[in-house]
Amino acid sequence: MAERFIIRKNRFLMKNTIGYYNCEYVRYGQPGNPDFLNKLKNIYGNENISVLKSSMKNAAVLLEEDIPDIIEENDLNNCALICVPRSKAWFTAKQLMFKEAVRMAAVNMNIIDGTDYIIRTDDTYTTHFRNPIPNFDNDGDKPYPGITKETCVIDSEKIYNKNIILIDDIYTNGVNIDEDCIQALTDAGAKNIILYVIAYTR
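Predicted structure:
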């Protein structure tokens, strides 16, 4: 069963929100760390397709284990799975396979596939590397309140009055990408929003 935590309101998020995570993210290469998530990021787009497919399957399995319990625990109906959009509008299909894992899990669980309800249109700064990324054009603004609404197209009609499970790969407190996305969905009329991430950074 996924672990529950609270995302505290701040200047990005107007009210506390429930979150869940499957495991802790420690450091790449450490025992028990979900390194497959780094493979799925595929920042340079050069990961082997068999590695990507295996990593995608790993993510989908965890989603299919955890999401039904979250839905039951929170009595969610008319529920859609939505992905936090990746930072670059130009990422290729091979760099968006976490999103495909969410889509696959939604279909397998007979849950509404909302993976296209938020679409990235403008690049934002890639935040998940502590140091500059060699040979990578990391253009775009760093997180600020409202960045999701200003850099993405949000399908408010499909989001309105729905229960949303917002999915991301890794949550790191203080980055505020997830918080801003939750607020954007709230402003679009979502009924309830719960965040689910595979890994929580300690």
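Summary: The mean pLDDT is 95.
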